[in-house]
Write a structure and sequence with these properties.
homodimer; alpha+beta; seven-stranded mixed β-sheet; 11 helices; globular
Amino acid sequence: MTNTTITAPRGFKAGAAACGIKSENKLDLAVLACDTRAACAACFTQNRVQAAPIQLSRDHVKEGYAQALVVNSGNANACTGPRGLDDAATMTQLVAGKLKISPRSVLVASTGVIGHPLDMAKVSNGVNHAYDNLGDTEDHGRAFAQAIMTTDLKPKSAYREFTVDNQTIRIAGCAKGSGMIAPNMATMLAFITTDAKIAPHDLRANLVQAVSRSFNRITVDGEMSTNDMVAVFASGLASDHELGETWLSPFGEYLYELCNELALAIVADGEGATKVFHVMVTAARNFTQAHKIARAVAQSLLVKTAIHGADPNWGRIISAAGAAGADFNPEQASCAIGNIVIFNRGTGADHDRDALADIMNKNDIWITLNLNHGEASDVVHSCDLSKQYVDINARYRT
Amino acid sequence: MTNTTITAPRGFKAGAAACGIKSENKLDLAVLACDTRAACAACFTQNRVQAAPIQLSRDHVKEGYAQALVVNSGNANACTGPRGLDDAATMTQLVAGKLKISPRSVLVASTGVIGHPLDMAKVSNGVNHAYDNLGDTEDHGRAFAQAIMTTDLKPKSAYREFTVDNQTIRIAGCAKGSGMIAPNMATMLAFITTDAKIAPHDLRANLVQAVSRSFNRITVDGEMSTNDMVAVFASGLASDHELGETWLSPFGEYLYELCNELALAIVADGEGATKVFHVMVTAARNFTQAHKIARAVAQSLLVKTAIHGADPNWGRIISAAGAAGADFNPEQASCAIGNIVIFNRGTGADHDRDALADIMNKNDIWITLNLNHGEASDVVHSCDLSKQYVDINARYRT
């Protein structure tokens, strides 16, 4: 079997270590290194409270290049003041020293509890071990994906490969998020490698578009973390020269597909989640209207609990849509669960109850709301709300 | 003991009946009637999907007067199309016929399941019985408060009385909401009576202000119903002539107090709630900033579960504030739980952990977030999120 981890694209090595930030000797620190000065783009959390590694990485990625990444799990290095910034900077310096590159060429990410300073002796040890373990096999890529997990139930990775102008281009990514048993760990991290030869500004444009159509289209509990980050590194080793304009569009499409696969994996591994559901709003007046309504329904606690209980409670769907803060006319709208229309032009629609019950008992459910207003549409992916979510988040003690 | 129900202000009678909309012979229909053509003002849900009674009452209250109200529980008469509008109109006609007034002088409200047509034979029967039972004693007022409940754990009522210019003015109210075992019943209804002599435009101004500072400052699960309604009726029988300007301000203050008491009672009786908490944002740049942040923290599932678990998890509070979509500088902000500062200028603050644990174990908790930006402030009241909430809303079958 071929390697489909983040070490699959040409030019990337990964190394992981268990340095004691997490308990039980679990992998909790990882380094990603590129043989070249890679084009790099990243998207960061919009939270006004931004963890130290976010602040530093945002600065380091400015010029569009980076050559390495260091990431730890178990501690978010958030709300840690000037000391936190120093610690994040030290992490980049430790890796830069090993790789003999500038600290500005290193991005840093952290995920875990908020408000506790990092134990830098452990981190320093971790960087040494991760560096010693650097390699480009499948096992190295898997260890990296493992090391960024907090209490996700499973590692999440995706891979795409395509050929343009007789050149094979590989894109690989891994993500963590939202499957956390301990809280304050709702951070979404995704790291993507590719060997495409692409200019930083093109890489950034493609990433922004892919992220807005994938990671920004999911919700587990409506919470945005202080540490969210998606970064892509492009080694350029797939070809000697930048490929023609024609390949940019397939690259963007595959990058989006990969991001979407990772995003859906995050929802499926959501805290306490037992089911995934998708809210599609069609025939909206504009994208904003479609998105607001899709998000409101996908985030509604009453809809999420109805999905959990396999109850085709369309009243909750329509009510949540109406409360979305986006004007629409319910007298024109219709709503379907799966392929069964359950609401039409302001009132309930006759339907086959047994067939609907079958759909509600599935683990993957589509809700479609047709506004009959215009041409725009959007979709938001979500998971059900179970007692386990409350258990997970109430039982924990800081 | 004196009567402190909605029949206490001079000129009001109430009657209730069990007409079989709800099971187990529970009170499910009630009529409120005023001896005079009362000044009347009402606030309605902002949901784009509005139940038939909301549409009708909004029209009937336009001129600022009303003389009666009919309300049923067990069925929301929402998403019921033209038939629902006809049924709501019939309810006002039935009551108007009995009281020999115009149907336009009757408001109508409904709460219960969405999407099912009312059984009008039962409703008609209920109106007859409620009319026959009309009276102005405490028992009559209590029966009314009982009849508007769906599965609230307890009836909620409040009373204020004050004297201006040697005239005693009474304000009484009752409310239902958010303590519902069956879903789609998250409707908030509140009805207020007063014998103040007040012009409709003054009544409306005072109600809007009181509602915005009370009912609009609470959240149980962030859901806004299709049927929410707050209405106040002023019989004018407290005095022969309209009181001077001086009394309007105490009237507004007492009306607000009464609304706030009812609003807090709704939160305390929230679905599955075991604790109440308040999020106060101070020193904000403006009211919008204060409100957005207070609401985001109050609605955060991670904060709500932390409160449930008595966990002083300030990371969740700060992260929710940062994600509120309101710009602020965490490096200037501080946060206290009760009187204990746990976050100061971007980082955790040393504090007495035992004292904090004592506060977290209380049933009523204040969170204060000082932004150190300006002079504005706001508060939002909320309750914890328990497994019972999920149970209540997932177990139910439509």
